[in-house]
Fold these 4 entries.
Entry 1:
Amino acid sequence: MPSEFDLIARHFARPTPQAVLGPGDDCALLKPSPGMELAVTTDMLAAGTHFFADTDPAPLGWKTLAVNLSDLAAMGAQPRWALLAGSLPKADEDWIAAFMEGFFACAGRYGVDLIGGDTTRGPLHLCVTALGEVPSGGALRRDGARAGDDLWVSGRPGLAALGLAHLRGRTVLPDDLRAPCVGLLQKPLPRVELGMVLRQRKLAHSAIDVSDGLLADIGHIAERSALDAEISLGRLPALPENVDPGLARRCLLAGGDDYELAFSAAPEKRGELSRLADELDLPLWRIGRCLEGRGEIRLVGEEGEPASVDWKGFDHFDEEQNR
Amino acid sequence: MPSEFDLIARHFARPTPQAVLGPGDDCALLKPSPGMELAVTTDMLAAGTHFFADTDPAPLGWKTLAVNLSDLAAMGAQPRWALLAGSLPKADEDWIAAFMEGFFACAGRYGVDLIGGDTTRGPLHLCVTALGEVPSGGALRRDGARAGDDLWVSGRPGLAALGLAHLRGRTVLPDDLRAPCVGLLQKPLPRVELGMVLRQRKLAHSAIDVSDGLLADIGHIAERSALDAEISLGRLPALPENVDPGLARRCLLAGGDDYELAFSAAPEKRGELSRLADELDLPLWRIGRCLEGRGEIRLVGEEGEPASVDWKGFDHFDEEQNR
């Protein structure tokens, strides 16, 4: 059986042109760019909680990095470096090779060097720390929303959660919907370009990535910005056809695992944001607005009348929702 | 049951004076110091592999951070920031509070801000990423040893492994040895001051932290520096009394979990290193030397004659040694 050190050398170590020193020493060494701040995020993925233990390792490798790059995207940061720590039940070299292939595919797509990591034995867990750069003072934050801002979300929130519901046997998706939903679940595309452009062109006042569910994550913007967020149910992306509409709406509003960006922007940016959607070939939905308030979410119906839903985002320690 | 967000707010979030933005957003934001490189390391600790699942949470919190600071110490870096990701089987608030108390005790001792993290549900795993700073080009690396260098190790390598052997019932330590051995195992003291002084005063050509076992880790210096490392068994720290000498020697040479520093230094630094040991009140043992070679470890006996041992350091994927 290959040793830990052999495995690292064979599958983890690739050239790291953006680092002073890559894997193989006690620490990696980086030279941050002058005038930039460093954006840092970490995510732990546990088998059974975030993915099935028998998940195909190549897309899992992609997703393990992608969910962290989504956090960098939400700050408008340029991804640059990542570290990967893994707890593995056994040294299955085929699994590791496939996983790392997916991981490096994502790293290559977004220009990230894998500069270090750790492997150990234990129930399957994966922990990535991702580092990016953003000009000092320029990061998009959750606490920057202003009363009067529009609220926007990118892409197709809810489809990944429908893919999960399908894989768990809770629904049967029609043929034409299955592949895109499962694809978004297994291989999310972090909105790095969108985040950087929003920051560079000063289009957004605040941003967050949608990982816990659209309402929950917009709730974080509202809370941190000390505003209310009004979501117009009539402005949400259309639900897919031939799917239980209750399930589809729940997935859209609270499904999680979307890795889209939700952001707030001044109303005078509407035209520019429409053009940006075309430029990036990525739908941008204006779904609500920010109002003076105390950090709450308000839902309004087609005619602007108050509406309600009685469930929130995904909470890893909430027994009821994890069943 | 408190939600994930409540738990984070209550136990994870403390002031982060060294960060531009601490926990609570998609990323933390740091402003690296001009002219410095960033040293980054990550370690995953799994219950059952690195610690017993019923380990006292306060010292576990200390150790979870300390083992990462030990990697920073080995580079001569000043610790500054850390991120903590945890997978927990349940939201046991007492456990979390005690764990974080130990974690923050270590963070406070070494001047580290906890700037971010993640919590999820799953079998107990803890993953820390630690970041420190070192002047550009000044880091102590594994690959800097030179032929003719002395080899040194700090502290009392082997005692932590004896503590583990005692806790596992493989030996019974005498009363006077039990507390120091178990103490070093459960609450290691990363040699941050030693690493920084070695770097600042240009006393060492290479360094590594001893986590996998003394011979294995000195082997990494030898391999990365393309030299042989000669270890004089007669120069090793004296084995503790009233302990099985075979076990004690094995713990000393291959026990792991020491978090001492091993380093190479020119022979003309011997006097200065002796004085440094007094200054830091930390034993420094000159245990061997670097020779032209191909990355191998050579053991020599009391009279300089070749000696041998037939076991190596701890490898997490080596079945034989993990039983």
Entry 2:
Amino acid sequence: MPMTILPDELIQRFVSIVGDKNAVRDQADLAPHLVENRGLYKGASPLLLKPASTEEVAAIMKIASETGTAIVPQTGNTGLVGGQTPRSDASDVILSLERMSRVRDIDPVANVIVVDGGCILDTVHQAAEKVERMFPLSLGSQGSCRIGGNLATNAGGTAVLAYGNMRQLCLGLEVVLPTGEIWNGLRRLKKDNTGYDLRDLFIGSEGTLGIITGAVLKLFPKPKGHQVAFAGLNSPADALTLFDRASTLCGAALTGFELMPRIGIEFTAKHIPGVRDPLETPHPWYALIDISTSDKAETAQTMIETLLEQGFEAGIVQDAVIASSEAQRQALWHMRESMSDAQKPEGGSIKHDVSVPVSKIPDFMAEAEAGVLQAIPGARICAFGHLGDGNIHYNISQPVGADKAEFIARWREINHIVHGIVLSHGGSISAEHGIGQLKRDELADIRPGIEMELMRRIKTAFDPAGVMNPGKVVKI
Amino acid sequence: MPMTILPDELIQRFVSIVGDKNAVRDQADLAPHLVENRGLYKGASPLLLKPASTEEVAAIMKIASETGTAIVPQTGNTGLVGGQTPRSDASDVILSLERMSRVRDIDPVANVIVVDGGCILDTVHQAAEKVERMFPLSLGSQGSCRIGGNLATNAGGTAVLAYGNMRQLCLGLEVVLPTGEIWNGLRRLKKDNTGYDLRDLFIGSEGTLGIITGAVLKLFPKPKGHQVAFAGLNSPADALTLFDRASTLCGAALTGFELMPRIGIEFTAKHIPGVRDPLETPHPWYALIDISTSDKAETAQTMIETLLEQGFEAGIVQDAVIASSEAQRQALWHMRESMSDAQKPEGGSIKHDVSVPVSKIPDFMAEAEAGVLQAIPGARICAFGHLGDGNIHYNISQPVGADKAEFIARWREINHIVHGIVLSHGGSISAEHGIGQLKRDELADIRPGIEMELMRRIKTAFDPAGVMNPGKVVKI
């Protein structure tokens, strides 16, 4: 057992709410909940609680608030900024929503689904599929991430271009407040202008303002046509031109436009089973273009052919393939989605999740490459991502043969270089992963004082006792 | 001059910021700023200020905050809930953004436009048009309403179905806080997960948390195909079925689906010059269907023909016309947009701006009609609106020959009946117009105590001196 400042009598009060078998105190069982995926953060905790209902969550928060006990909400534990990891002094109790994983209701005519905060993203996909609808949020971790966490981090993923991020996909919330009160904001309305936008304040607040225990999400008609192309390009500038043409040609039918570098294709072909370079000769850059059409299947095919023809004629597409089956479409997306995993066998990777206005992508890429290579000659830049959203995962693999620990030790230094260039283009240091612990202090450094002050005022107004995921996002 | 509690020395301090010729004190000149469009509210004020810059707005708010002087921001004065009208004790200073009406920047590649808070909506439309782009917000008042007010009220309009309301159309804001500090949140990013969502908190706060002096708005590619149909239907239930088919068939290409009753067509044909019933025989209900396609013009035509064919075959469309020219498309929309004005010659009208989940529209319409006719036999219900968003303008014209004043005196009573039915279906008492003065107390009655408490905490955290449009939205 770790040393904890929490008295046993207090722990017993918490345990009695959920029952012994839903309270984890054994450190071996707790262990997977104390670290995040990349191993950047490791915390400690004497207790994990698994409430079965909103009322149990509320009862936990009431005691927490009365006794000043910090609560860390956790859903799929797939976050990438340490927002779900307890602090290291074993003073935080973890609250897991894994037992609250139901689909509460689904209405295909109104195009809504109502789910528990602990509902797994894939469960939502399957429930929508059963009624001939579609829920567009698509993430690598969709088999384990849960809706409460997706909302708490305003998750993005690969379908943001056409459908938006979680904030755009959510109509209503049920939230347990730090004080243990329950806010029932489970509205199913597309339009509702009745006072301050509490919903969007909770979305993206990373569990620091309350615990999202339920949500109303939007569903969409399933597209009838779907087509994917993979194109070899000479530069990010050509990719931007192609994106601009694709937007104009396809409008809302353009559901994905991803940029990848040559080295990313090499890494995936080398390390990910079944992946091979789809084109005959190498190209410096690649675009993955995804088109979904609602009227009929052929429109997607016509659109993608027209786009590639225009691209060839303009000299911006060097070579391309169009997927000829659903299996090929999935294979092309699999390559893109494996790009981060494919870096792992290549040693240490310093990561960034940044965005700039889409028109600034080429300048950003050139300046960041120059800055990084000046600092670490031989660094292998594997910058890929959602070009259509201006969101690049600017990942940097260590030079061949370099010492991994020494390379990773330069994380902050390299962040500083890349983020400086991002900010010079009016960009964001966290496009979709959030702030958590990882970027909390950096955010305070780069944002105007008044902005941080407003965030602190909100935090204090919602969580006067300071018990709701303290130490994340904003320092009080 | 009205009696005012503001000392002349204080008024002089305000005047000195903007200069004499930009400070209105003459009551004849002030008069149009003291009433709102429907004449429901009439306020009093000794002073209207027209700052020319964000810095001047900030200087005004600094003095206001120091001296506890209430400021009412006003843009196009087209709001419908009294949010822009000063209170009646002549203690509020009006701050007009009409001199801050510039387009600051436009970037067609990034699809963004940056404008002053006082920029007229039509100016944004024209600027977008010049660079082959489109800004989708479309309102009857677009020639006079201004972006700051559109944002402050989270304006909706006729294109919400495909493009969302102002919250979805805005990327960044510049806001002068009640304390006179300036928050520069003029980001141009589609993805930015860096802390609490201040932007969406200011949007829809109706000038009670700060003054929106600048905004970054999204632009879209201009659709290539555009087609409008007008269909005669038997019931709201058939309209809902048709809408469901249209959504499935057209997906994001379905840009408008408006419901209108027979009496609305009669009123417009009678009172609006140039409007005539487009169909040969009368039908109880009508749908206006608007389709915009990005790939080519013909797709819109094919889609609308297919939809109407399906509707005829299923027996849900009784008769229909497809516009054969841009002039006809505009004429059909003009009929829809004149529906509120066409009620005026028919005497008093009690209005509601409500929303319910779209699947509940038929039940809501039936129950509301029964409730209203029981209270006022002979009342003429002219309920029309954005069926696709679940948003109905449930307007009720007085019975023929009734006394207008007596009818209007029953506004609250009828609101109570209609809103009760709305709430029983999980709906909203203000879908797009906001709360202002008109619905402030009713909101507090119907919403859970904790929700109003959170709003009050936010208001107090942002505006500790209580000087920012006091008395609107939430009572402190």
Entry 3:
Amino acid sequence: MASSPVTMMKMKVNDCSPPSTTAARLLPLFRRHQIHFRSSVGPLQNPCFPRTIITHASRSSFSSSSVITASMTTEASAKVIDGKKIAKDVRDEIAAEISLMKDSISVVPGLAVILVGDRKDSATYVRNKKKACEAVGIKSYEVCLREDSTEEEVLKYISGFNDDPMVHGILVQLPLPSHMNEQNILNAVRIEKDVDGFHPLNIGRLAMRGREPLFVPCTPKGCIELLHRYNVEIKGKRAVVVGRSNIVGMPAALLLQREDATVSIVHSRTKKPEEITRQADIIISAVGQPNMVRGSWIKPGAVIIDVGINPVEDATNPRGYRLVGDVCFEEASKVASAITPVPGGVGPMTIAMLLSNTLLSAKRTYNY
Amino acid sequence: MASSPVTMMKMKVNDCSPPSTTAARLLPLFRRHQIHFRSSVGPLQNPCFPRTIITHASRSSFSSSSVITASMTTEASAKVIDGKKIAKDVRDEIAAEISLMKDSISVVPGLAVILVGDRKDSATYVRNKKKACEAVGIKSYEVCLREDSTEEEVLKYISGFNDDPMVHGILVQLPLPSHMNEQNILNAVRIEKDVDGFHPLNIGRLAMRGREPLFVPCTPKGCIELLHRYNVEIKGKRAVVVGRSNIVGMPAALLLQREDATVSIVHSRTKKPEEITRQADIIISAVGQPNMVRGSWIKPGAVIIDVGINPVEDATNPRGYRLVGDVCFEEASKVASAITPVPGGVGPMTIAMLLSNTLLSAKRTYNY
């Protein structure tokens, strides 16, 4: 991106502003800051919590290891959680383990991916997964089926991979074409190879105390891994999960609860979600709404994990769009103690966790 | 119980007092009330929420159908949710359905109960279940095994019931003797006959949007049934579940979320749980701590479902003890808009829901 930091900053602040503040959008940055400092009310501030943006009090202590400081204006102070770096660390560790495993028991973990149809984004994901597998030494098996394939064909391939001892993980790329029953197809994957962790039996075990899931879904697992690697204490903390999807929000809430956080789940039916997020020491947001979580929604010192990857129009970008999270980064980074960026936060962790689950499966198969 | 209402009231208020207020315990009722009205602080009041006990503002509207008014002093105003009556209504509906089913397809639902060991409380539960089955027309099958039976023996009986077409529900009475692996035994029950709903596959489906559990665990199902039958709106409401057990707290939270409540789960690691419960429109408490939830923990107008059944010493009772809930009824009934008593609240609902699950299973087997 060619824009200067100041220009980019203005653009991003613009993104976070609600439609009613169009006039304010056009103010140059220094003017906006003047407003913040001179008044405790304004379009970006909540009268119930007027000092969230202008004060930096109550920051929680936070380990600085592996932390890259945000290159923001002087107002920004949240540490940026570097998902790209952590994902690389995880992949390096996996590669080392696989190499050792190969040497000692001559086993190479295998991951099968089934792609149906010709969605560009899905094809990109699958390509990235394949590359990531190769880089760490996981053998990848790929099946690409036409959009008009039948459910039976997909099930036939799943059945083949279920029985194939070289394959330790099976992943069906979602979404499937609308004529297929996603539930039937996902349920066909043997639970021992369900590296996505989406099987209800896995989810049930995740929910239950004293039970262990075979696999934890990759994205929420990646969120928790980021918290662990940045030494964010979870036990006894208030955590709010924004979104209750089967893939991220719900399992993230279950994982946080397993770690003894006190969890609240906010969703589309929640009235005044900001009153709840404002109590959180940790927020995980996974709703797919660009910049929905504003600075005023956040308790000073909170840690923010932003799972959203939302394309927004951007004429200055050669692709005509760029990616933003569910959280308004500019506002949040002035209030939070740590925050994941988008892109480069949770995103890279998902594939790293998929590799981790595949390795885990291979190790379990051979009691290694 | 022979005590006069006033004496009982005093006793119950005493129960709710923390140990440090032993002196206050001995005060006659009117004196305690004087203290409440004269001061906004005191052992039973929280300075952050000083008016919860002395004001009756903000009560939510609440359907009065099937509601019996609490026979308390003038201060009490919460409607008492009559679990005994609702459970009887449910049982009557089940009996009518079973009678119809028998007439039309000649099928009688069957419930098998396996009891291991000679715990008195378990024997009582099993006896009550048997009686309840008989009353609605469910055929009950009972196996009583010695405390020193092997896991294999229990599994053999489960296997037999799994294959028996007359049996539509199998229930293993918990707790099992310590030499048995509870998980192995519960997992052996065919999911189609798991009327307890404790199988991880059921719990997983309960957690997932777009999936349906075969059975919902009986006690949390009973809690939600009480809310439904008393026309308590759940959608969009703040709900707090106190406790996160596999049997009650966790599935209750999942059920509330399925009904579009915004749910928070409070547990033993939660700091200042009262700050969270005070935000709740609905509280379900299932921790097994007598009178833990005080009046000051409750938002005026909230609806309270008290799952706890805790024996406390009571020299005036011929048995030497009596049962109280997790919630201090006397304090709570002055703040809440509706509350379940203990006993006579959630308790009778559990068996009613077990019968309901057994009927459901039989209907499903025959596509009835």
Entry 4:
Amino acid sequence: MALEDAFDDFTHRDWVQETVDGTVRLAVVGIGGFARNRALPGIAAGRYCETTALVTGSPDRARTIAGEFDVEHVIGYDAFRAGNHAETYDAVYVATPNSTHGEYAIAAAEHGKHVLCEKPLETTVDRAEEIVDACSDNGVTLMTAYRLQTEPVVRRTREFVRDGVIGEVVQVHGGFAHPLLDHAGPDTWRLDPDLAGGGALVDLGVYPLNTTRYVLDCDPTAVYATTRSNGGPFADVDEHVAFQLEFPTGATASCTASFDAHASSQLELVGTDGKIAISSPFGGVVPQDIVVESGEMRTEYTGPPVDEVCEEFDYFGYCVLTGADPEPDGADGVADLRAIEAAYESAETERRVALE
Amino acid sequence: MALEDAFDDFTHRDWVQETVDGTVRLAVVGIGGFARNRALPGIAAGRYCETTALVTGSPDRARTIAGEFDVEHVIGYDAFRAGNHAETYDAVYVATPNSTHGEYAIAAAEHGKHVLCEKPLETTVDRAEEIVDACSDNGVTLMTAYRLQTEPVVRRTREFVRDGVIGEVVQVHGGFAHPLLDHAGPDTWRLDPDLAGGGALVDLGVYPLNTTRYVLDCDPTAVYATTRSNGGPFADVDEHVAFQLEFPTGATASCTASFDAHASSQLELVGTDGKIAISSPFGGVVPQDIVVESGEMRTEYTGPPVDEVCEEFDYFGYCVLTGADPEPDGADGVADLRAIEAAYESAETERRVALE
């Protein structure tokens, strides 16, 4: 592939292979800030999904939001688990606290509904595998909501890497800092290890982790991690984490995440014959700025922004409608949890932890 | 400090405190590519040093270079060690293979000559400490040649950090890749562990290591490292290294270095209230591009380039002439070797290694 061709049609949906009609009717389970501010508008802006139900513990608040987004049904959690009103939706988007993903995803699968589940898939490998099994047993599609995998700048980066534009990847640097308490109170479930399964690593570190795995198209063989907390609201979780991954190709990834630092993110890959640097890849609104160096050639590209959340829901809807297997499937979500569990073990033991 | 003031006079030599006359007469010991292409022109362009002697094992080649740079004396290594022609210089710049730094630096100190010694100071902590002791015993100035410490963009970064422009530093990413065999044959001493003391970590990793220590103004308390070699010309040393440092402030630094990847370097500091990213800080010709985010403010600055090697020699000359202690002193060089030894131990044992 010539570099210039890649930039010609940077945001094209390479995953669309056929024309499909209809939409997937979605129940959005859990109406937190991300669901309201990003997911519901993203679904509304897209083509292959529509929100037909909100599942919530706060029916009054949900009814206001339902009005705003023209959603017909508001369902309580108990009714949802019981399968009441299941005829109003074809699939669910689970956006509840991490430790409840299994409960809702498995209930949905048992009612024959396809599942798009927020990352991390659950709080442990075992619990995540229960989701995978339930979806498999019930013959429904399971996608882990890694929005970065439908982000054009990340998809193009994977293509560059696959096509050898930067040679063999040698070293990756990835970081994601997001000052949690600027956007949430200290009682947020993200700071409760039982509900969240961990701290900055689980919530933010999973972005450089998953994106690096996706771009390199392989899983880490070992991890080392250092976690740190200054106490206070962060007393029970990792406020900051630095971790280093080894891949079977020999590449390493040096990653960081922080709940309590200036909002910023970065991803840079250095290969034997070039490098790729993406500006602010993880913050949710990606500027599509990418620098690609290949041999003597250097290209800086700033693409038209896309709504990656809209891309994500449309990708899920397209997969459900066509019966395609989503790339960020359940196994993908489990692989990250395996790395996360190993990273926490490493932080505890101060040793490199090998992964199967 | 207001950010805009810092950019007003970005390249000023803040280390010049008084007017001094005269120059330091330098013997350049070891005439490799860096000495010829960067050091001799840098000294010639500067104000406080002049090259009066070349010390070499290849007198014919040295005479050509001496002619080119108008250097009066060419001295053989044996004669140099014996102190012959010591009256022709006041100080030495040692740019020989790493494991010979001690031999020449100590000989110079014993002849009462000040020493500017290339990094790493030697191949082990013990050998480096012998240099420190010899210079101390003989009352001569010792500077480790960390050119980055006289690089304006790095000095300004340290000032920003000191002044709290980005709050407390939380996480650093630093990397330096330089394809060695594009510039040297496979028989280069840099690939001989006895002469070099190690591979990419020693030769390149020392840049993000030292620069991070300098900017944070403290020493690491622990290190973890992974090294890798694909064999061939790199069989005996680390071709690639990824290492993670912990600092007493709680900050971490995620660093990489490679002898066999696309030429690139980066340094990024994320703090509680901002971030600083320097483009291509380590490659020797620094574009003076820096992005500083402080709270809501973002500044991108591209300064006039300076010759950082000229800065380095002038800084050394100024210190010798005024009797000032150079900041990159012998202890600074020893501290890096301590971290490097611990990193190699970590790579061997697959464990975090604590530093005293």
